[in-house]
Write a sequence for this structure.
């Protein structure tokens, strides 16, 4: 009997840790756990099915069975989950991932119809990386053209007097090298994985934002699977999976951090006091962001934000 | 290969075609103006910075979103125009050798293929548009509703599909078979 | 039937539909949709059909195409082609076969502001063919030099084919443009040499020997300056990081419109026809991209590309043999297909193979465009040959095809040079 073929799609290059440490091993483990009942084929970034803005529609329609996507793509979809991306909500990937998963059943589940979520998680906080101008405090952001990763970060850059620029990750290097942008708000791992350490010499570790992701399976595909496969999926996802992201991100980030550090770059870590200062300055922007969400019909936006902050502060 | 098979000119069709052409062209022209103005503002900011050390942060906010919208208007309407004028990239060597009867066959085959492909596209696209109303998403910087981007696509596909259906039905009601003019 | 076999069958079926003169986009689309449905069931197809047309138009990077097309169309309206031809004629006209050489020079010049081969043939053809006829050049030589010269439109940057290759393979368009400059000049030189040799071997190509060409005057050269200005701003701007390819195209289009207005070459009628041409070309190219994207969904899911890569790897075929096979495949396909459709159709399964064999993607982009443009002039189906026939009445296909043979030889020489001396393509990008 030929194995049941499952398609797994994501938007990252195969060299990325999310592919090589998380999804690829997860897929192979599922194959062996189900003793060959299923076979998982992965469609990474660059393939037709790996289009980041279409991943959710792809998995909901059943064009692929499993997908891993960014909550920010396309914009406007997963607004509740993305409240976690507001400045200074979470300090690390572990805390953020666990909190998202904790809030999922009561607050976030409705955002993901037709897809059974296997994990919600986030990256470690990103930094402000610049090419020529050192950024060490809040006023230095003014006038800089910075590539932004999330909508909340774009609002933040604007609020601090900078100029947010939208660019796909793969184009950041070229634009930084040519001086089209002055820097990027990005996670440490990109210094290594996109070679950005070659062009970005100044790094401000302000722990301002995290980017959130989802990992899910088409509900109908899941429902019609044999019980043993369901069991294999259940035991390798959810809490078990969510708990792994903290260590993974630390490992991926370390490569980029070490590269910048050993090259003698200027790395500034923002003190807690300064972070409080930033937060104060950004509070109007945060209020505005949440008010916008409320206007869009997400009436409990502020409640979700408060819950996230509570969980974060308790840690 | 790329040929202009103009059917017997009917002024109504020509009028529609010209109207859609102008709409589509406005999209491209807007995209052009957006880039030129944005680049101009950015370059002047840089120049001012060189001389005064102050950097005015000029530029069009959300220029990419607006460009995408302009092109999204231009392209599907352009496809519609090509259907209206029966202008496509095709290999018509067989037409030259096999003559009139093959031409009718090929014309029906094209119309049928068009109905199948455009029909399924239009159907799925309207489902997507519906989905956008229920479950809206928006553009990256300006948060424009993506429904705006879907409408022109639906319009262009509809024009093209209508042309295919009429060119499939037309020969059935025609007294003299037309099409020797290829 | 296994999935890769279905993929192979689909590829052949689409060629068959294309040969029945079904529009290329519809042929690829129909096969793509049916094939995908056959392998993945109907619900997957709804996703593909709902997303492919949108996603084929939406990306910002693609807006470069309509803008470059607009630049070419409006440049053609403002008499620049006649100026270019006059300037080239002044420089080369005195030589034996000089008018044909001038035609090629004018094509190269026009290629530097126009991204498409079609437009180059049509634009230069309208100016140069009557002149060559007047001077007693045989139709065989005149038509062929225009058809061949037209391929410079896609080789010399900006180039729609290179843009599409770059987008499909995620390579930098700026680097591809830079890589194409030397091969483009090489092509121009080889065509000129080809004319010089042809008229010596076959003197009856020039029925009337007395040629009068204008004396050297700076005034004439100066009239062609907007072309140089536009090329420098567009290509230079991309290289020095002043703007992205899309922005460069927007500025180029603006320059062309401004020039057309300044030279008072736009009235209501010519503006309408320029709009028709811009919109028509844009629609045509994007419709093919949409059709090809359906086809690519199908190819990817059939596993044919992956199978090809693993077969070549498993057999330990030396890279040079594999490359030779790929080039022969393209040459054969080029006899029957149009260049852009060919690139869209084949890149999904050829590109992974090329990368796994260790070839440079930028270099291969130039090779693919060279081979694909060779397809534009090879009988029986060569788009440029048809367009030349479209420009002038009473020009039998056999005449054009006879004349094109030396140019095909010239292209073969260039292909060999580019393959054996990769520095011809890779030197300029390595500087940036
Ligand atoms: Na060109
Ligand atoms: Na050919």
């Amino acid at each position: 009997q030929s194995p049941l073929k499952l398609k797994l799609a994501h938007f990252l290059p195969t060299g990325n840790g999310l592919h090589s440490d998380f999804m690829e091993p997860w897929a192979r483990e599922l194959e062996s756990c189900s003793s060959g009942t299923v076979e998982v084929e992965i469609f990474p970034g660059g393939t037709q099915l790996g289009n980041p803005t279409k991943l959710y529609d792809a998995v909901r329609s059943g064009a692929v069975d499993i997908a891993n996507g960014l909550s920010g793509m396309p914009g406007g979809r997963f607004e509740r989950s993305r409240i976690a991306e507001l400045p200074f909500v979470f300090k690390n990937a572990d805390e953020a991932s666990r909190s998202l998963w904790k809030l999922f059943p009561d607050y976030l589940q409705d955002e993901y119809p037709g897809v059974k979520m296997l994990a919600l998680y986030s990256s470690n906080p990103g930094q402000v990386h610049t090419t020529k101008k050192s950024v060490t405090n809040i006023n230095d952001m003014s006038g800089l053209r910075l590539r932004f990763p999330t909508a909340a970060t774009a609002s933040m850059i604007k609020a601090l007097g900078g100029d947010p620029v939208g660019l796909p990750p793969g184009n950041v290097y070229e634009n930084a090298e040519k001086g089209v942008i002055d820097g990027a708000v990005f996670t440490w791992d990109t210094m290594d994985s996109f070679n950005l350490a070659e062009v970005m010499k100044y790094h401000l570790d302000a722990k301002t934002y995290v980017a959130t992701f989802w990992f899910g399976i088409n509900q109908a595909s899941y429902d019609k699977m044999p019980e043993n496969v369901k069991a294999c999926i259940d035991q390798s996802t959810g809490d078990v999976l969510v708990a792994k992201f903290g260590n993974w991100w630390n490992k991926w980030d370390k490569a980029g951090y070490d590269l910048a550090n050993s090259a003698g770059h200027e790395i500034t870590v923002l003190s807690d006091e300064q972070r409080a200062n930033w937060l104060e300055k950004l509070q109007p922007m945060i209020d505005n962001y949440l008010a916008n969400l409320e206007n869009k019909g997400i009436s409990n936006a502020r409640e979700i934000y408060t819950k996230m902050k509570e969980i974060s502060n308790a840690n | 290969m790329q040929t202009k098979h103009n059917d017997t000119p009917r002024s109504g069709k020509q009028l529609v075609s010209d109207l859609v052409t102008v709409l589509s062209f406005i999209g491209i022209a807007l995209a052009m103006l957006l880039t030129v103005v944005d680049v101009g503002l950015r370059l002047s900011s840089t120049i001012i910075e060189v001389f005064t050390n102050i950097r005015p942060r000029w530029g069009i906010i959300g220029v990419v979103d607006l460009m995408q919208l302009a092109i999204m208007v231009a392209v599907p309407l352009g496809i519609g125009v090509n259907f209206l004028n029966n202008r496509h990239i095709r290999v018509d060597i067989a037409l030259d050798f096999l003559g009139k009867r093959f031409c009718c066959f090929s014309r029906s085959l094209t119309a049928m293929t068009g109905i199948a492909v455009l029909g399924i596209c239009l159907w799925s696209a309207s489902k997507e548009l519906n989905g956008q109303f229920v479950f809206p998403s928006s553009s990256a910087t300006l948060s424009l509703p993506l429904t705006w981007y879907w409408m022109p696509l639906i319009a262009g596909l509809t024009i093209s599909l209508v042309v295919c259906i009429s060119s499939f039905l037309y020969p059935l009601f025609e007294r003299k078979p037309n099409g020797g003019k290829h | 039937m296994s999935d890769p076999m279905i993929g192979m069958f689909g590829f052949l079926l689409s060629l068959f539909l294309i040969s029945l003169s079904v529009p290329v986009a519809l042929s690829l689309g129909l096969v793509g949709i049916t094939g995908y449905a056959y392998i993945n069931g109907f619900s997957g197809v709804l996703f593909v059909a709902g997303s492919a047309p949108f996603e084929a138009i939406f990306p910002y990077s693609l807006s470069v195409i309509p803008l470059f097309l607009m630049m070419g169309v409006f440049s053609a309206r403002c008499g620049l082609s006649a100026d270019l031809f006059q300037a080239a004629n002044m420089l080369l006209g005195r030589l034996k076969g000089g008018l044909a050489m001038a035609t090629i020079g004018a094509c190269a010049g026009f290629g530097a502001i126009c991204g498409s081969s079609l437009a180059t043939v049509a634009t230069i053809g309208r100016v140069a063919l009557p002149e060559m006829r007047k001077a007693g050049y045989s139709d065989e030589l005149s038509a062929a030099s225009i058809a061949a010269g037209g391929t410079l439109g896609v080789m010399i940057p900006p180039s729609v084919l290179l843009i599409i290759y770059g987008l499909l393979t995620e390579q930098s368009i700026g680097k591809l443009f830079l890589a194409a400059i030397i091969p483009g000049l090489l092509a121009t030189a080889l065509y000129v040499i080809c004319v010089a040799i042809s008229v010596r071997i076959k003197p009856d190509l020039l029925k009337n020997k007395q040629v009068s060409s204008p004396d050297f005057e700076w005034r004439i050269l100066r009239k062609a300056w907007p072309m140089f200005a536009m090329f420098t701003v567009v290509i230079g701007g991309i290289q020095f990081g002043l703007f992205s390819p899309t922005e460069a195209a927007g500025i180029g289009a603006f320059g062309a419109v401004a020039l057309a207005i300044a030279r008072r070459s736009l009235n209501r009628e010519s503006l309408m026809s320029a709009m028709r041409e811009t919109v028509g070309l844009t629609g045509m190219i994007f419709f093919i991209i949409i059709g090809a994207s359906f086809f690519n969904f199908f190819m990817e899911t059939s596993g044919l590309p992956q199978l090809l890569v693993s077969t070549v790897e498993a057999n330990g075929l030396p890279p040079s043999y594999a490359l030779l096979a790929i080039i022969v495949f393209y040459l054969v396909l080029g006899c029957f297909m149009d260049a852009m459709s060919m690139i869209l159709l084949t890149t999904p399964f050829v590109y992974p193979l090329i990368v796994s064999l260790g070839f440079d993607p930028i270099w291969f982009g130039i090779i693919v465009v060279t081979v694909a443009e060779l397809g534009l002039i090879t009988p029986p189906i060569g788009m440029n040959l048809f367009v030349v026939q479209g420009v002038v009445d009473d020009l039998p296909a056999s005449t054009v095809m006879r004349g094109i043979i030396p140019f095909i030889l010239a292209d073969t020489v260039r292909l060999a040079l580019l393959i054996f001396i990769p520095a011809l393509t890779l030197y300029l990008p390595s500087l940036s």
Remarks:
- Residues 61-174 of chain B form one domain.
- Chain B has two domains: 12-59, 61-174.
- Residues 137 and 146 of chain B are 6 Å apart (CA to CA).
